[in-house]
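Feature request disguised as a bug: please show the residue count (370) next to DUF559 domain-containing protein in the output. Example input:
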Amino acid sequence: MNIKTKISRLLRQEQTKAEEKLWKYLRDRRYNGLKFRRQHPIKNYIVDFINIENQIIIELDGKYNNDILQKEKDELRDIHLETLGYKVLRFENKIVFKNPELIFNSIKKNIKSSESLPLPQGEGWGEGNAKSHPHPNLLPQGRRDFTVLSTKKLSTAQKELLLNSGIGFVEYNAIEIELLPVNFSQNIQNAIFTSKNAVRAVFNENSKSLPLLWERAGVRACCVGENTKKLLEENGLKVVETAQNASDLGEIISKNYKNEQFFFFCGNLRRDELPSILKENNIQFEEVIVYKTHQKPKKFDRTFDGIFFFSPSGIYSYTSDNIIGESVAFCIGNTTASEAKKYTNNIIVANKPTVENVIVQAVKYFDKRI
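Example output, currently without the count:
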């Protein structure tokens, strides 16, 4: 028995109340004679409910699905499943109890027409068999003609997101971060972080004095990005303000903390937007350089369909030896996009400043190009 089958069986034994309720409606062909399976493995996923004949998947979402990072994972998961020909119907748990007809109506709308040949009972589309797939032009290998360049090394999970979508990729680190020892003895109440690198530097094992100060009650942090917030909270710091970019954070601080003093922990190549806004609004702050960014230029003798950029420094490094040309520049945020505009107008900006969302934008873009 493989690991996916074991997990599926375990999940069936530990159904949520919403899953248990919906299964009573769907099991034994109770709804419209349709055969549904529960906790069914597909590729790298286990879906809540599936009707293989009509390629319908039903996913029930709990509170944890509202987490911003989980939403991105769910969105990518749905995109991957839809490239395999499935229709993903996603509902909140409460719908099962308050308005199950909404689920049934959605199922009914997505039942294939009578012109479609049904599958033999209990059978599914053969994985990897393009001729038997209901939408062969949507198979992931259809995207193999698209290749992107990532200007930072990706995690294993992030690589899998691309590979599962059938997008080829090349990766390298366009910049290198040097964390500096932080010997900081001043008492603080408010700290600003615009990157995870600054957080890592502050909580680096070489920084002996500063981490002790974070344990003081009342120390507050303002930051850019949900991932930066998460890293700060993991290190015990209270985050009171979060924004999508440095400019928005500057506006929030200027509006809500007019009489406060801040320490801005940043890199040696930090952008001017946030400091400029704070100065214009007479907000007192002191910069503390906690890391250095070093460019690592590399020449590429090929053209990529897309390039992932995660910082202005990454753009500086890449363009020192290459041109963006006709490639689509997928940027992690507006600050990075502003730098990219110096070299191209073919730019797509992530909805949220995360690597995963950059990948989401690329998958959506190339999905339309198939």
